[in-house]
Amino acid sequence: NAEYMGVEGSMLPTIVRSKFTNIRADAEKKELYLNGVEYYPGGSDATDVIAANGVITIVPWKGVTGRVLIARHSHTGRLTSDAPLVECHTSPVSDISASPHSANIIATSSENGDIKIHQLKIDGDEGVLTTVEQSIALTGHSKRVCPTLFHPLVAQTLLSASFDQTIRVWDIEKQTAVCAFDSLPESPSWMSLNPTGSLLSVTTRDKMLHLMDIRSRTIVSSTVAHEGSRAMLRTFWIDNDRVGTTGHNNTMCRQLKVWDARSFQKHTHSHDTDSGAGVLMPIFDLDTRLLLLPSRGECNIRTFDLSTGITECATSQSPSPVVGVAALPKQSLNVMQHEVARLAVLSAEKAVFRASVTVPRRSIHFQDDIFIPTFAGIPSMTCDEWVSGADVPAQLISLRPEGVTAQSEVVETTAASAQQSLVRKEDRQSLFEDSEKAAKQRLNDKMARFSGVAVQTSQVDGVAEEEWDDFWGYFVQCESNTILFALFSLLPSFLVWLRLRGYQPNILPGPSQGPPASEWARVLCVVFYRQQCTSSRERDSHTMAVQTTQIH
Predict the structure, then answer these.
(1) Integer Cα distance of 355 and 29 in angstroms
(2) DSSP label at 348?
(3) CA 146, 152, 154 angle in degrees (round to 5)?
(4) Which phi and psi (to 5°) does residue 492 adopt?
(5) Which of 106, 109, 71 is nearest to 92 (CA)?
(6) pLDDT: which is higher, 225 or 538
(7) Helix H or strand E encompassing 131
(8) In the chain, what are the helix, strand and coil shares in percent, each to the nearest 5?
(9) pLDDT band at 428, cuts 50/70/90?
(10) Do the beta carbons of residue 524 and residue 451 sit within 8 Å?
(11) Which pLDDT score is estimated for 316?
(12) Which residues contact 180 (CB under 8 A, 6 or more apart)?
């Protein structure tokens, strides 16, 4: 669960931890499955057998004709023989795509090279989508079309790759190809656009990775992506400077690589997963740099953090082998449950279900470190503007619910409160020291007022300076003893008054033998303090012999 990176001058590796170390993917309850889905597996492993947006799920239907099932996410249970299907092509469907800008627009392609754009009609909140209001045909390819891709930043624009070794960019509104690249060395297996939509990475069946500027119809750079005999490679963009690929190495071990888009001479990072035969189907989140890596025909769903290098996180298990996976838009996530992704999964048991990918955290606040502003689902420019060379950034939207406190704000508030508490503690300490000095002065004034002489520690032999400090501190902490102190100061005068009245107690010496009343006050105060000591060690050190010596 960590990436080991060497540290210069150290014999030990550094462990790079990820915030997604304990991530997990949980499938919904089986009662919410859509069962009985007779999907068409496609002509090759490159076929996407499922697509989804925030409202619907699209699956190619089994048969010789090009039919697709289009159902709402809320549609559950088993499909019957009269399952609502949409006729799209006269030959089997080779690929499907859902528009990121509109929930009722999809694209389908066929084995004979046809592409169609369908505008759907939504029938009710819980029904299936059975009506096609309008279909637009895009013709130009001569062979099987796969894959197709809507441009996320450009309105009404679709990219298509075909086995005729061409890539075309379609203006859906004009129903024409505005860009065409006709000189690919081999048939494409996958393609992906960079975050700004200006460059296209393409993997081909000769195991090559090409970086293309589709608007200028040029290949910027090329390299051998993976050395394995299986040519089913896929590619995705991590950011504008890094490209990721999946494939097999020369020992038939499945592999994940990261490339520097500025130089394809050598990959920057590489990670071998296992020796499985299934095709890896990467689903990458540009916001969190989180890669979900399910494999066709298996139950494992691996996760990787690609923020710095390749950090492998937890592996989750699907209830049944996976045939296809599609990611739903991030606007459909439950961010208060720390859900970072939601997948529509087509299983080998002919069922469609949703899987929730969450990061376990105990906080009840909005986690703004993993839910940064994301793509709003709104195009930034028109097709003509993009073809002319414009690069407009994506429009972003915050996933933070209204009225919810962000985790960063809580941390800042806690830090500020801690700082204020420290300041208040220092102020209280300073105030206590000032109060202690003032209390000592008040007690000294009281003793001087009652005895006639201010107390000086040096006037009593045998009383250490530290003992007088303890004496003052004791009376500051126990202010109720101030009254007792005053009473003990008046006691010698009271005894002298008794003697003059004719009563002669044994503890009071004669007038010629006794010390002044002020000395009596000081000595009796010391005796009173020593009697209040709680530890036996302090009581042993304050003996009555010292008291008798001081009295006489």
Answers:
(1) 10
(2) T
(3) 105
(4) -60, -40
(5) 109
(6) 225
(7) strand 131-138
(8) 20, 35, 45
(9) low
(10) no
(11) 93
(12) 140, 166, 167, 168, 169, 217
